[in-house]
Request: fold
Amino acid sequence: MNQSDRPKDTSISSGTETFIRMFRATVVIVVLAMIGYFVYNNATNPEASRPFKLGLDLAGGSHLVYEADVSSVTPAEVPALMAVLKDVIERRINVFGVSEPIIQVEESSFAAAEKQHRLVVELPGVTDVEAAVAEIGRTPLLEFKLIDAEAEAAQASVASLQANISAGTGISSGTSSGTSSGAAVVGNIKVNGEAVADLNPYIETGLTGRYLESAALEFAGSQSGQLSNEPIVSIRFTAEGADLFEKITRDNVGERLAIFLDGVIISAPRINEAISGGTAVVSGGFNLDEAKELSQNLNFGALPVPIMLVSTQTIGASLGADVLEKGVLAGVIGLLTVIGFMVLWYRLSGIIAGFALIMYVVLMLALFQLIPVTLTAAGLAGFILSLGMAVDANVLVFERMKEEMRAGKSSRAAAREGFRRAWSAIRDGNATSILSAIILFWFGTSIVKGFALVFGIGVVMSMFSAIVLTRTLLIAMPDRSLSDSKLMRFLYGSGFTRS
Amino acid sequence: MFSVIYKKFFLIVSALIFAVSFLIIGVFGLSYSIDFTGGALLEVRYETAPGKTVVEGAAATQNLGSVSVRETSLGDRGNGYLIRTRDLSEDERIALEDALLAIGEGASIERYTTVGPTIGAELSSKALWAIALVSLVIILYVAYAFAGIGKPVSAWIYGLITIVVLIHDVIVPTAMMSLLGYFTGAEVDVLFVMAVLAVLGYSVNDTIVVFDRVRENLQANRTEKRTKIVEPGGIEREEVEYTLTKPFPEIIGPAVTETLGRSINTSLTTLLALTALYFLGGSLTQNFALVLMAGVVAGTYSSICMAVPLLVAYESWQAKKMKVEVVTPK
Reply:
């Protein structure tokens, strides 16, 4: 071996340098081994604190998207109401007994024609979507509406009129109890029959279940000492709701206030006086069980705004398990073939790159557990794709290094120079990828977000694994030149050539 | 380097690839999945599967309008069918499921998806926005990163060429998708959009690596001439003029040669990973893998055989134009 053309590693200072290089390489390997153990432990131990989080398409379950109808509230109130809606549905689902449900409020992007507010509900393990939908949908919507006495009377007379017509009896008997205004409306209907459908005796008051603080089962008469003990539901409003309720009752003494549950009128008591203090009573001929259920449902969540199911997705658990198993197999085989190729083509450098690729996988898996990233079929596919792309930075460096070594540099100097000169290409190539991932994450729905996250951290980690890990290991290798021996020419060569 | 010497040949081939891809997409079209159109998709699995016509018949009894039935293989877990209908209500879904479960042995519903029409429409516009925005960011970044590249070709041209190359790299996998759709009934879904975006990322990386080498070689093969100019008002300004020591194509040629090994090897490792995904990853991501493979091959081809010839062709066109401009005033 001809070593005269460079300083030998015998002096004290270069001995220290060698030690530092070896120390760094050892630290890298030990730390990565520890992370690897952490990942393995988390993945296999059933009681692990940070297991892999599997998306619905891998674990099986239901994905429901509800659209909230916020047309009756001012835009400024929407975020708070959506938060309340989320809490309510969350409580509802917890009663249902689903482990780790995910409930998210989502807004349609600015790309949509109309801004929409959605509630995304993910129920892992629940494939009986019918029952889940029923459970969520059963939550009552409570509304208070004033009754327009004239319109109601008109509607009643129209109804009796129609009943009479169909029964074949005359008009006179049907309108005998009607008021004069009622008759006028009936007269109007004769001219324009379509007006019947437009008659709405109920006036929105803005008072709904969103102002509800609590509801309790009580018995009518228990306070006033009467004998009747009909089950009723007493309602306590929030401070804001109490003010509204007081205002409504003060302004409409003598009118009737109808209480609607899920769009159905359940009672319409007359307002005798302004009610302050923020309590109201719902009575509608309930039996004990009905009253109990109503008070519970109201407590568990009267929905602040109506919701509508717009999308559902159900994946059977066996299908998910199958996808996961195949994805993992594809990942392992993909990893091995990429490493195999790198070792065959780049030899010694390839072995180091293979090592760095395994470290990349370990780091990625650790991040998946720590962030945590919800793994989906798409995310898994993206990860497998990234295995092939992650070696790119290594390949760039090795090709540079080869050029430098051919120009006569020793392996360590060539490695340093290779990293230095490959950096601008690595930086510019990956910067655009990172920017793309950020855009995707910002834009995407949950599925796209998962992919963008995997893609983005994949790019960052692959840069890290090449620039820090591969570099540390490559520089810790003994410093040799191509001219040293045929073996060196072989080890630092590539492809089909012998040298 | 071959792609510089035979630049005309490669530009014609690239134009042909564009034309053929557009033709394929135009003739066969793309069929969009319910992700975009809205509707319902139901996968049913049978241990002993009935024939396709039986399934179609059972679905037809539900009066759901046009229903498409597609066979899917679930490997050792039996055979399945994908039934696509319009957006279903809960009652309609239950009725359809009951009808399908009744016609085969060991039947189970594997997955069910319904997408409301507004969500579908929103996703389509979202996808287009995302692709447009990513492209914009790429052209801006390339123009910025290569801002110092100077003569003879401006950084914006590098950005523009990157975009032309990107369009090529997206059109090719889209044509692939179109063929897949025609022959196997595959549909354009969210996964396809993700594949396209991944191809964008891959392709721009490839092109940037080549341009990076072009930049380095340009800097190594030029002479600087600095002249100090004193502007009126006493502000001193230094103007640097670069002169290339070799003709442009002779500087670009080696850049391709030097990056060729890297381009091919990176695409090979990526293709290896994708091959594993295609053969082992299950049916759900098979089309994703195939589309990406087309994109990777297209990306590698275009960075070598399109980006560089375009750059050289632009330079010679520009040089000719400059000459004409100098000549005409006389």
Residues 286-327 of chain B form the longest helix (42 residues). Residues 39-115 of chain B form a domain with the Alpha-Beta Plaits fold (CATH 3.30.70.3220). The longest strand of chain B covers residues 222-230.
